Amino acid sequence: MVDRFKTKLCLTFFLSGSVTTILLFALIVGFARYRERNHRIARAEVQAGQRPVPPCGWIEALEIPLPYPEGVLPDGSERLQSPKWAFPGFSTGQLVHFLSSCDLRPAQRRILLNPKYCNVTSNGCEITPPATLVWSLNSKARQQIYSALGRNQNNYAQRFPLRFSPDGFEERLTQSGLNGRELAKIRRLVYTNSGTVCFTDLEAVRNVLAPHRFDDLIEAFCEVPAFMLRLQVAPDSDIDGLAKYWGKGGREQLIRPLLKALARVPGGAGINVSYLMPPFARLRLYTFPDSWNDSTVSRQDCLFTALNFFNTTPDTNFLNQAYCQKTLDEQYVPIAQDPVYGDLIVLLDSTGQAIHTSVYIADDFVFTKNGVNHTQPWVLMRMADMMAIYFGPANSGRIMILRGKSRVIPPTAANENADSCNSIHPAEDCRPVLSCGGQVRMFSSGT
Fold it and tell me: Are residues 333 and 411 in the same domain?
C-alpha cells in the first residue's frame, strides 16, 4: 500500500513537472513569436514612413565629447589676460553716454569712469576694470557691455565668448565636478546673447579656484563636440551607390568588397565610417597634433587638412599659401548643390574673407581641424557646431561649397538640382558664393 502510494505520488509530481515545462516552453515560444511579429510590424511601419535612403546610406551618430588634454585651454594666452576693455573711437562723452545706457548702479559707473581705471587717448577709451567690479555686474549689464566690446577685435574674450545652449551650460557645469559654492560663483558671470549662454571671465574664475579645480572646469567647458559615425549596411542596400558615394577619390574598388561583405551579414551590419576614409584623414581622426612626431604639425591648419583629405601621405606643399591658392583656383569650383562626401565647406565672413575650411562627410557632418594651434584635434563634427564656433551674433557670414572639377555634375544635371538646397543654406543663398572674381580669397591667418 505504501509503495503504491509512493508510486502515485511520484507519478503525480512527474506529470505536474512535465505539464509545467510544456506550458513554460509554449509560453516562451508564444512570447518570442509575438515579439517577432510585433517587431516586424513596427519595422514595416517605420520603413513605410521613412524618407528615401540618402546616397550616403543610413548614418548613426554617437557623440563622444573630446576633452582637451590636461585641462589645456586652446587660446588661453588671449582668454586669460587681465580684463582690459577697449572702446576704439570713443570720446569721453560717448563713453559716459554708453555706460549711462547700461544697467549699472551709479557707484559702478563712477568706478568705470575713474581715471584710475579709465584711460582716454586720441584713439579712444580703455577701461581696466577691477576684479570686484567684474564680479558685481548683473547679467543684463554684462550682456550690454560685453556685446558692445565684442564688436571690436581688440576685445578677444568678448568677441569670442564660450557659447552654450542653456541646457548645455548646466550640463558642462555638472561634468566639471565643482561643488555648489564654486558653481554659484561661476553662474554670477554668465550672460545671454541671441538665445545662447555666454561665458567670458575665465581670468576672474581662475583667481578664485584652486588650480586643479580650474583645470576641471576648463576640461568641461572646452570639450570638442566630436562624433563617431556608423554606416548601416543592410542586405538590400544599394552597394553600387554606397561605393560610389564613399569611394570618391579613386577608392571605389578599395571599399566595395567590404561593403558587399557587410550586406551579406544576416540582418545587415554597421561599420565606423573612419574605415572608409582615406589614410590621411583616418589616421588623424580624434588625435591631437602633439601626438604626432611631425616637425610641420604646428603649421597644419584647416586648409592643409582639407586639401590633403584624399591623400595617403600629406602633401606639405599645402603649408604654402600660394600653392593652396593655385590648387583652389585650378582644381575646384563653387557649386549650388547639396554637398557630398569630399566637398570643401568654406565659411566666409561678412566681407567674403574665408575664415575656415572643412570637408563634408555625410548627413551634415564634416571632417575638420578648428585652428592651427596644438590643442585642436582632427574630428568629425556637426556642421551646426562648427559654424557656431566661427559665426555668432556679432560675426555673420556665409557658406561656399567647393567641389573638385573632376567630380562636378554636368551643368544640365546641376540645374535640375539648383532648387534643392541643403538645410544649411537660406533660400536666397541657393547659388555659389563668390569673392575675388570667382576665386576663394585666402585666409588672413591660420584657422
Answer: yes
pLDDT(446) > 90: no
Q: Strands 365-369, 227-233: parallel, antiparallel or unpaired by DSSP? A: unpaired
Report the domain count for the chain: 2
Rounded CA separation 194/150 (Å): 13
- Residue 123 above 60 pLDDT? yes
3-class secondary structure for 374-420?
Answer: CCCCEEEEEHHHHHHHHCECCECEEEEEEEEHHHCCCHHHHHHCCCC
Let me know if residue 9 belongs to a domain.
no
What residue ranges in 72-226 does DSSP mark as E strands?
85-88, 118-121, 124-127, 162-164, 191-193, 196-199
Domain limits at 311?
289-429
pLDDT (0 to 100) of residue 122: 86
- The answer to whether residue 262 is domain-embedded is no
Backbone φ and ψ for 295, nearest 5 degrees, come out as -70, -20
Q: Would residue 230 count as lying in a domain?
A: no
Whether residue 200 lies inside any domain: the answer is: yes
CB-facing half-sphere around the CA of 315: CA atoms within 13 A:
15
DSSP letter at 285? B
The angle formed by the CA atoms of residues 46, 51 and 57, to the nearest 5 degrees, is: 100
Spatial separation of the C-alpha atoms in residues 376 and 79, rounded to whole Å = 16
Same domain, 157 and 293: no
Q: Using CA atoms, how far apart are residues 208 and 213, in angstroms rounded to an integer?
A: 10
- The residue ranges of DSSP E strands in 138-268, in sequence order, are 162-164, 191-193, 196-199, 227-233
Report how far Cα 342 is from the mean position of its chain's Cα atoms.
18
Residues 296 and 209 in one domain: no
Report yes or no: 241 and 196 within 8 Å, Cβ to Cβ: no
Determine the Cα–Cα distance for residues 115 and 125; give it in Å rounded to an integer.
11
This prediction's pTM:
0.66
User: Grid coordinates standing for 45?
Assistant: 511601419
